[in-house]
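Homework help thread (please don't just give me the answer)

Our assignment gives two proteins as sequence + structure token strings and asks us to describe the second one. The first is just a warm-up. Here they are:
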Amino acid sequence: MRKSLVVSALLLSSMAILSSMAAAMAATNKTVLDVDGNKLQTKTNYYVLPVIRGRGGRLALGLRNKTCPFFVVQENFEVSNGIPLKFLPTDSNMKVVHLSVDMNIVFSSATICVQSTAWRVGDIDGLTGKRYVKTAGVTGNPGLGTVSNWFKIERYRDDYKLVFCPGVCMFCKVVCGDLGVFFEDGKRWLGLSDVPLAVMFKKA
């Protein structure tokens, strides 16, 4: 009888350990990692880099038609510094960035436009028919009035991609899309695209 109790206790203990390990692995798989294998921290500056070499550099700001607000662009050259940015999830208490979580993305830079550098998805452009990512967005206050300001990081093969598919407004009709690059007028503009830009994150 005692032997049976010992065996049962060992089995329960093993099951608890395995369950704990599985939960830890699941949590790790949902956590976004930077190029050094460290967990991506919220409210911390990072550069966003393309995974594929030779197709542009880091993300930065660029004026379109010489008018405000600034748009999000990919630098044409890998050697360009780019501009660091921060990830701000809907849950302000979250310490690390997880996959599929709504968040604001904000450049850590002031501009001549004297506007917020938070990202937002613009309306359909009348000339190109595309939707570009621009600044002058709003941080926080998830809901109907800020639905265009929320982005997510998702897995893309063995890498990551940036996605616009906000879940902050349950009754809003949103056209989701991956963020890719359009090469126009000598610049690489970030916008909703069928071809996502595979990215990685480097701590500034």
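The one we have to describe:
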Amino acid sequence: MLNDRKKQAYNYLRNAIISNELAPGAPIREQELTKRLKMSRTPIREAMRELEKDGLLISYPARGTFVLVVSPSDAAEIYDLRILCELWALEQGLSRMHDSEIEIINRLTKEAETNIDWEKFHLSDLLLHNLIIEKSYNKRLVSFIQAINGQIERIRRFNAKGKARYDLGIVEHKKILNALFNRNLPAAKKALEEHLRTSRSTAIEIAKMFEMQSVPHKS
């Protein structure tokens, strides 16, 4: 039962942070959470410790726990790692990809393009990058990416905001998918790196906004 409640608290807080319902720098108020989630503080505190490990929360002695503010240097580091990992994973796994797997993402991308559907766009982006990582067949790489997935997803959701970035993201996805369908490794690597570097630049700008708009807390 405790594990179920911990998972419930973890999922609630994680979703609230990634969706920005809990803004960067916002305090985590345990008493409010116990009332909202109808559970004791123990599973909530355990969930908070897990979210600290995930890089989504930060605790200060005698001050409390807060939503971690993604700094520009954090965003740069995360994307630098993504570029290195995903380009290597693509080299290892392109030949293992099936057309049916690529087509699922391609269909979602087309639907997102036609209907301007943000959720389908985010889903297609998530599936595309997960496919690249998973086809590397490197368990440690998959585990590493899963460990920072919360930070990646948080930035990714802000990264696509704005119609211009949305439209460019669709174009970038289509270039990558076309190269994957054709099993053209040089073209796929070029398109993927361009996509990630554009996302990196946008993420750094968004992180600057995070710092400016984050909820202040006393030191």
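TA reply:
I won't write it for you, but here's a hint about the kind of observation we're looking for: The chain is about 75% helix and 5% strand.
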